[in-house]
Amino acid sequence: MSSPTAAFLLADPIGRYPAATVACFDPTAGDLPRRRLNHSRHITFLERLAAAGAPAALIAASTGQGHLRTPQELEEWFESAGQANLGAMVKMALLRPEDGVEANRRMLRLLADLGYPVVFVRPGTDLRPNASAEAVAANLKPIVAEAAQLGLAVGLYSIPDVSGLPLTCDAAALVLEGPGGDHVVAIKVTEVDYNASTRCFLNDTRLAHVKIVQGWDTHLAQALRDGPKYDVQGRQRCGVTSGPMSFAVHQYLHILRSAEQQDWTEVALAQEAVTALFVSMQDNPRRFADLQRAKFIMGLGHPVTSEVTLDQAERVLTALRSLPRQDDRARLARSLDLMNDGPFHTELARLSLE
User: Fold this and answer.
1) For the chain, what is the domain count?
2) pLDDT computed for residue 2 by the predictor
């Protein structure tokens, strides 16, 4: 089965947009001061996510240290993912306004040539801290317009931990009113306060035709419960784009199946297990977890410009061993052992079978 096209998604964003997207790790090799992308490892990782059943993959998100990559490194990352045999798994890419019009135009053409149906854009780090909704929208519009001209579907992305500024509902609505705004299919929200972010996007009637994608993972159960309430046809309005899904793919697919069955008790319990691992990588409760620690455990290398310590990895493994439910431990261990040859393969394999 082939991946859906942009036209397919544009025809019904809420009904057809993938239920879950992995914000993918970038397997690395080499040494400090700067590591490089490990192409063969990257392709294998993506193909194993696809084989596990992940509906979509986002390349160049924060989880994979994408915001540290140069434009040339992003192009390399996009091209590498384009070589993977992903079947029906949808490829998506994240672009940055601060890279400039020409660099983004070049990358958009590359993404179109490589068959990426969706491109995301977040507020640029070149915006002032007090930038208005109009200024934020103006920052995003060139990429949105260019992507639409190339026939791509577009996602907007709020991640103030990275960009410094959130994407507000007003800014998003202004983008939708501008050139190419009719190609926006989703808005991803990665913010610590659910009520002040995700729920606001769900409530805003100007955005009622697009999918709202939860990105702060501890809010996923709440988002999935709320989603059908904010669609006139009662469809699931909320999706997920998850960094933790890179290391917890089997657990996330279980959560989504449980949500489809309206088993909210199981959704909450399964989410608690992911949250325990998330917290074990979180040094500040109001900042997103340092998921590079899970990347290291999986055997996908160290961060681009730093190094994971054994103590940091052990904190994650301790959280895994301490989970009260055996099924959660098994699914998460199997996910962390996706590559089958990481530095903790033996223990993870044992935990996945217990």
Assistant:
1) 1
2) 65
